[in-house]
Specification:
Order of helices and strands: HEEEEEEEEE
Helix content: 10-25%
Number of strands: 9
Oligomer: single chain
Radius of gyration: 15 Å
Number of helices: 1
Shape: globular
Largest sheet: 5 strands, mixed
Strand order of the largest sheet: 3-9-8-5-6
Strand content: over 45%
Distance between the termini: 36 Å
Structural class: mainly beta
Length: 126
């Protein structure tokens, strides 16, 4: 597949992801310049599994870690680099939500399935 076809396919996928985020159901915190979300990583899942913010917000994730893993958000690697987390710690992750869409949250483990999708970050357009 040549690079132009791949680029067009990636652009179409990005447009589709943005289109999948409804404006009618914006989080109440959307008007706030910053939001803090408390999340727990248990086994191969997040509680809650879906994190919703709005584009332009400064986001803090307070991650209560119950298992060793490398934590990362696909599509937000530059703003929120993958990070090793250890059971028993609480980690504060901060970034600015610069792109709208739906982004898988994944962990990598040595004793589990390798990479496991544990939740999703939904970034709404305001």
């Amino acid at each position: 597949m040549n690079r132009y076809v791949r680029a067009a396919a990636l652009l179409a996928l990005a447009a589709l992801l943005v289109a999948c985020v409804p404006r009618a159901n914006l989080p109440e915190s959307c008007a706030d310049p910053a939001v803090t979300l408390a999340v727990t990583l248990v086994d191969e899942r997040l509680e809650p599994t879906t994190l919703e913010v709005c584009r332009g917000q400064r986001v803090t994730i307070e991650l209560d870690v119950r298992r060793d893993a490398v934590f990362h958000v696909h599509g937000y690697d530059a703003e929120l680099p993958a990070r090793q987390v250890s059971a028993g710690e609480t980690v504060e992750l901060q970034f600015t939500a610069v792109r709208s869409g739906q982004f898988p949250i994944a962990i990598h483990t040595e004793d589990g399935p390798g990479e496991a999708e544990v939740g999703a970050l939904i970034v709404h357009e305001r």
